């Protein structure tokens, strides 16, 4: 709980700092606040504290995911150095809104009561609607914000409807009590579950409710997209699993067939469409859809191993995404484009950037000795344990397609010649984040046991 | 102590690799050499400490972390440091350090200096991993790692096509062996449910002999590749394309003995399978003789040493096969000393000759390269098996065990030893005695090598002379320290073997055997002396007519050509056939079909993403309706 308070206070302090034009203090204060929030979480590890009549419960699951969300946010903040200043004059608002979004994310991973789930999702979503449209003069950014908002509110409506139905069936918002009374009004209850399923799959961008993702990711400023594809997605999946793993496990899994179809559709659409893209940012947007498909497998086949599988996948995916988005921002800044051709010859002009990108893409593709390999490995392990071999076959085939489009970038970087040979200058913090990300990626690829057994 | 510091032994060279590898363009030469040598020296010092710790307190297992844990498969990243490992550590880091020092002189003018040291450090890292691992998977990582470094270093001067081809050949030949090794590991896991030594060896006796025979033969296939035994040895002579210190370190002293280490490590499995023991001994003996016969007629100084390495490795396998585990391992050790010495000496000669390797161009180098001459003489005496040089004791121990199993094997083994003495002294006399046969320019260029190269030679010469005293047999009133030290590793196997058959040789028999082999070797050396010093015979030129056996030996029994005709060419034609029919039309068709299907469907999928929010919402609603209908009406 204290972490949420610290994040919220930091956000307000940052807003005031902006008001008094202390621009140089924005980043340090935000990062310090976040470190404080993370520290307060570490202190309550294994304590299982609940707040406000079990509205929020900070068990280890909540703490692990909260720390991941905070860490990812810190990395993105460090990348943003002067990025925000270039695209807008109101820099403080960026930090503030992202911090508020993060507090919503922490609520989403620690809720024990469906009203808190709703509040968390709304805090996060409303912040993100604003962030998507923060480039006020850019029509693409505005379009992204409007689309996101319209479709998001549509999904919110469905979520509320689902919560209402479940409340009608069980008379409670509390996950534990819902699980206890699930079988009393089966029809109402199942209808509620299906509506919540639809809403949650929308929030994490699973087909056929993925339409917002590519357009919003492309329209929004790149670092905001990276926040969406990491923090927002991780929080969404953690909430999804928390909801289904604790409240709905007492009834037969009627959602299985629906989710299987969604997984297959998501994997197909995400990967195959990504293969077609010539724009790296859009390619990453589609590939983030496909990653949602892999993570959904762990929810589809709820089991003991699911929380850990999702956590490993989220960690691997988040750090690799931050690194690849970071490289993309740097390239775009110099070349003015994030098309595939902008990456030509990067291996020669900027060996470090190219190497970071290569490791990040290998991790996203699931190549061994990177964290991404073990992310997929444990997800597939969940499916194998549930005898879904055919699903794994599809997932592996689609992972191969993934390798194809990730390697298009690597090929461009190393085998194509670039037109100009100027190297890109990066600030120290920027380099630190990129190298930190790939070091973690490789470390977890060599020693996955560091995180495989914590949940 | 060991627990806290042992992990540093492999990590130090890895750090050296990172420093030299990342800065291979920028680091100044002095720093490169310093980092390269100092890291290995650090490992050597730690290895000495570990050695005494193990001697005092026995074997240790050091768990670093759980690496992979899936279902019943658990692969810990942990080290097992016992007597066998600690001696290997000393050999690798000790000889490795000397060769690093030597390299600072030998490679000084090479433009790839930084890259060279990076590779060499990486090699030491993987080799240490190979011997430190507490299970077969870690060993396999090291095994593959040293293979990679060997490939990189053989092809170090990759701009010459034939060198690059030699590197490829080594890699492919090793892959054939690795496949066997890998299947062996899989079978070990399926039989014993674990890949850790500590789990497998105690329950070895529960497995059936047939299973053990299959496993051990598969592992031996791996050893054949890595340790260059018939029929997979052809890569090693070609591997001489790499820089000479590399030949000394990787292709003589350390990597090629990995196969022997692996079998010595798995000794209990082999002992329980008499068939495998016989196969190992048979292949070892055949290789020892075969390679020695080829070495008789080679004119390239490094080729002679290469075939001699193959032959000596054969002796080591013979030792393993007849149950002389300590003897085989003893020979690994002494061979590391004298063969590294001989290679480095040859390197010094080649250095002085300005890159010339053909002995027909040499001669009379004794007065120009006195230190090289003297140290190489020590090495040659050691490999020939003259007492009390180190090679005598180790070879004698193997041959004595062979005699216990069968006098015939002993006789053939001694025959090989005579050939060894002959070709080694042939090489020695052709290089150092007689008149100089090279060009005027080469003659002018002749010089003794710098101290960085001669000091390692001297140290290795001392080791080659006195190294054998750790294993003086009982018959000569020695106490065989090595045998005592290694007894915890091989104790159980020795018991099983002793229970099965043959008693010990009497001291009189041992004296007779030693006397016979030493006498034979002396005659053989004398014959070489008569031919190459007294009569000053110089081997005939490339094109000169040769008689039947000589011609066959000169042409290495046409093994490369036979492999070419029997395997490579039919495979080539088959692959051509497959390429035209199967690949071009069928597989390409399917693959391209998938590609086109992907492209086509991507195009279609892309069109769904219209950008119109109305369409999106419409499709979402359709999706929701479908889900509801599906879930509630069916």
From TrEMBL, chain A:
UniProt keywords, alphabetically: Cell membrane, Membrane, NAD, Quinone, Translocase, Transmembrane, Transmembrane helix, Transport
Gene Ontology CC entries for this record: endomembrane system; plasma membrane
Topological category with respect to the lipid bilayer: Multi-pass membrane protein
Catalytic activity: a quinone + NADH + 5 H(+)(in) = a quinol + NAD(+) + 4 H(+)(out)
Assigned EC number: 7.1.1.-
Entry's Gene Ontology BP terms: ATP synthesis coupled electron transport
GO molecular function annotation: NADH dehydrogenase (quinone) (non-electrogenic) activity; NADH dehydrogenase (ubiquinone) activity; quinone binding
Domain of life: Bacteria
Assembly: NDH-1 is composed of 14 different subunits. Subunits NuoA, H, J, K, L, M, N constitute the membrane sector of the complex.
Function: NDH-1 shuttles electrons from NADH, via FMN and iron-sulfur (Fe-S) centers, to quinones in the respiratory chain. The immediate electron acceptor for the enzyme in this species is believed to be a menaquinone. Couples the redox reaction to proton translocation (for every two electrons transferred, four hydrogen ions are translocated across the cytoplasmic membrane), and thus conserves the redox energy in a proton gradient.
Name of the protein described by the UniProt record: NADH-quinone oxidoreductase subunit N
Annotated source species: Solitalea longa
Gene: nuoN
TrEMBL record, chain B:
Protein name (Swiss-Prot/TrEMBL): NADH-quinone oxidoreductase subunit L
Main localization of the protein described in the UniProt heading: membrane
Residue ranges of every copy of the NADH-Ubiquinone oxidoreductase (complex I) chain 5 N-terminal domain listed in the record: 67-117
TM helices/strands, residue ranges: 5-24, 30-52, 87-104, 116-134, 140-158, 179-198, 204-225, 246-264, 270-297, 304-322, 328-350, 371-389, 409-432, 453-472, 511-529, 613-633
A GO molecular function held by the record: NADH dehydrogenase (ubiquinone) activity
Gene source species: Solitalea longa
Localization per record: Endomembrane system; Membrane
GO biological process: ATP synthesis coupled electron transport; electron transport coupled proton transport
Ranges where the NADH:quinone oxidoreductase/Mrp antiporter transmembrane domain occurs: 135-420
Mode of membrane association: Multi-pass membrane protein
Assigned protein family: Belongs to the complex I subunit 5 family.
Limits of the NADH:ubiquinone/plastoquinone oxidoreductase chloroplast chain 5 C-terminal domain: 440-578
Source organism, top-level taxon: Bacteria
UniProt xrefs under InterPro entries: NADH_UbQ_OxRdtase_chlpt_su5_C, NADHpl_OxRdtase_5_subgr, ND/Mrp_TM, NU5C-like, Proton_antipo_N
Pfam families: Proton_antipo_C, Proton_antipo_M, Proton_antipo_N
Keyword set, alphabetical order: Membrane, NAD, NADP, Plastoquinone, Quinone, Translocase, Transmembrane, Transmembrane helix
Catalytic activity: a plastoquinone + NADPH + (n+1) H(+)(in) = a plastoquinol + NADP(+) + n H(+)(out); a plastoquinone + NADH + (n+1) H(+)(in) = a plastoquinol + NAD(+) + n H(+)(out)
GO cellular component: endomembrane system; membrane
């Amino acid at each position: 709980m204290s972490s949420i308070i610290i994040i919220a206070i930091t956000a307000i302090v940052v807003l005031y700092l902006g008001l008094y034009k202390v621009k140089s203090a924005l980043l340090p204060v935000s990062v310090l606040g976040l470190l404080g929030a993370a520290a307060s979480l570490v202190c309550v590890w294994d304590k299982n504290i609940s707040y406000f009549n079990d509205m929020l419960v900070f068990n280890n699951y909540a703490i692990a995911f909260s720390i991941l969300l905070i860490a990812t946010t810190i990395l993105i903040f460090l990348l943003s150095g002067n990025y925000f200043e270039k695209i807008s004059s109101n820099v403080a608002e960026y930090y503030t809104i992202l911090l508020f979004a993060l507090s919503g994310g922490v609520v989403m991973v620690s809720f024990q009561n469906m009203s808190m789930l709703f509040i968390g999702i709304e805090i996060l979503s409303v912040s993100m609607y604003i962030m998507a449209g923060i480039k006020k003069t850019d029509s693409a950014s505005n379009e992204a914000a409007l689309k996101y908002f319209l479709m998001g509110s549509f999904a919110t409506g469905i979520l509320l409807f689902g919560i209402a139905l479940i409340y009608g069936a069980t008379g409670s918002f509390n996950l534990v009590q819902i699980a206890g009374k699930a079988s009393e009004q089966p029809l109402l209850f199942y209808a509620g579950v299906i509506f919540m399923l639809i809403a949650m799959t929308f929030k994490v961008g699973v087909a056929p409710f993925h339409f917002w993702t590519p357009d919003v990711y492309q329209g929004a400023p790149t670092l905001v997209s990276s926040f969406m594809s990491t923090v927002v997605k991780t929080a969404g999946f953690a909430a999804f699993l928390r909801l289904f793993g604790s409240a709905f496990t007492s009834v037969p899994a009627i959602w299985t067939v629906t989710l299987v179809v969604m997984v297959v559709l998501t994997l197909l659409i995400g990967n195959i469409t990504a293969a077609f893209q010539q724009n790296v940012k859009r390619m990453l947007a589609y590939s983030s859809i496909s990653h949602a498909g892999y993570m959904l497998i762990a929810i589809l086949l709820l089991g003991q191993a699911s929380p850990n599988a999702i956590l490993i996948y989220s960690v691997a995916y988040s750090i690799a995404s931050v690194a690849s988005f970071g490289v993309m921002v740097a390239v775009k800044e110099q070349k003015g484009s994030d098309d595939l051709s902008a990456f030509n010859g990067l291996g020669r002009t900027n060996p470090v950037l190219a190497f970071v990108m290569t490791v990040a893409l290998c991790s996203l593709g699931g190549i061994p000795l990177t964290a991404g390999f073990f992310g997929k490995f444990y997800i597939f392990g969940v499916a194998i344990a549930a005898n879904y071999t055919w699903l794994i076959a599809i997932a592996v085939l689609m992972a191969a397609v993934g390798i194809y489009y990730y390697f298009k970038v690597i090929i461009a970087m190393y085998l194509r010649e670039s037109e100009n040979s100027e190297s890109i200058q990066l600030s120290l913090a920027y380099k630190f984040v990129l190298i930190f990300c790939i070091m973690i990626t490789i470390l977890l690829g060599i020693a996955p046991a560091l995180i495989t057994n914590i949940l | 102590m060991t627990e806290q510091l042992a992990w540093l032994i492999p990590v130090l060279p890895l750090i050296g690799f990172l420093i030299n590898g990342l800065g291979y363009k920028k680091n100044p030469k002095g720093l490169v050499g310093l980092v390269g040598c100092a890291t290995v020296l650090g490992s050597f010092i730690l290895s000495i400490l570990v050695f005494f710790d193990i001697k005092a307190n026995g074997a240790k297992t050091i768990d670093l972390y759980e690496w992979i844990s899936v279902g019943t498969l658990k692969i810990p990243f942990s080290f097992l440091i016992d007597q066998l490992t600690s001696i290997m550590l000393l050999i690798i880091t000790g000889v490795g350090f000397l060769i690093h020092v030597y390299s600072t002189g030998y490679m000084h003018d090479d433009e790839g200096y930084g890259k060279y040291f990076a590779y060499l450090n990486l090699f030491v890292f993987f080799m240490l991993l190979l011997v430190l691992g507490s299970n077969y998977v870690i060993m396999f990582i090291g095994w593959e790692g040293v293979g990679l470094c060997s490939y990189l270093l053989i092809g170090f001067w990759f701009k010459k096509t034939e060198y690059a081809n030699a590197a490829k050949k080594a890699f492919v030949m090793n892959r054939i062996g690795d496949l066997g090794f890998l299947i062996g590991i899989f079978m070990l896991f399926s039989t014993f449910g674990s890949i850790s030594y500590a789990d497998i060896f105690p329950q070895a006796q529960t497995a059936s002999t047939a299973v053990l025979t299959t496993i051990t033969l598969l592992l031996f296939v791996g050893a054949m590749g890595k340790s260059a035994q018939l029929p997979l040895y052809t890569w090693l002579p070609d591997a001489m394309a790499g820089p000479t210190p590399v030949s000394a370190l990787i292709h003589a002293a350390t990597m090629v003995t990995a196969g022997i280490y692996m079998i010595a490590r798995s000794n209990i499995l082999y002992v329980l399978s008499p068939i495998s023991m016989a196969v190992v001994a048979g292949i070892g003996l055949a290789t020892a003789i075969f390679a020695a016969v080829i070495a008789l007629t080679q004119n390239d100084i490094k080729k002679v040493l290469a075939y001699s390495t193959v032959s000596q490795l054969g002796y080591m396998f013979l030792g393993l096969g007849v149950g002389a585990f300590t003897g085989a391992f003893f020979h690994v050790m002494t061979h590391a000393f004298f063969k590294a010495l001989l290679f480095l000496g040859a390197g010094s000669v080649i250095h002085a000759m300005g890159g010339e390797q053909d002995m027909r161009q040499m001669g009379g180098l004794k007065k120009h390269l006195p230190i090289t001459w003297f140290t190489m003489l020590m090495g040659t005496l050691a490999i020939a098996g003259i007492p009390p040089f180190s090679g005598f004791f180790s070879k004698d121990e193997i041959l004595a065990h062979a005699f216990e199993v069968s006098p015939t094997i002993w006789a053939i083994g001694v025959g090989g030893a005579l050939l060894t003495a002959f070709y080694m002294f042939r090489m020695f006399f052709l290089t150092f005695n007689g008149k100089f046969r090279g060009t005027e320019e080469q003659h002018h260029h002749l010089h003794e090598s710098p101290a960085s190269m001669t000091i390692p030679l001297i140290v290795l010469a001392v080791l080659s002379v006195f190294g054998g005293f750790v294993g003086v047999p009982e018959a000569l009133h020695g106490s065989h320290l090595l045998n005592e030290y290694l007894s915890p590793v091989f104790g159980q196997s020795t018991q099983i073997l002793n229970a099965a058959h043959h008693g010990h040789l009497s001291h009189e028999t041992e004296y007779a055997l030693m006397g016979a082999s030493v006498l034979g070797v002396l005659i053989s050396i004398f014959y070489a002396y008569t031919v190459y010093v007294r009569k000053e015979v110089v081997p005939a030129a490339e094109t000169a007519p040769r008689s039947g056996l000589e011609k066959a030996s000169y042409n290495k029994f046409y093994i490369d050509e036979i492999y070419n005709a029997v395997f490579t060419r039919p495979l080539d034609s088959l692959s051509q056939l497959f390429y035209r029919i199967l690949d071009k039309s069928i597989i390409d068709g399917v693959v391209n079909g998938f590609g086109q299907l992907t492209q086509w469907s991507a195009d279609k999928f892309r069109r769904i993403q219209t950008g119109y929010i109305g369409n999106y919402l419409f499709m979402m609603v359709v999706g929701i309706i479908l889900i509801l209908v599906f879930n509630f009406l069916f």
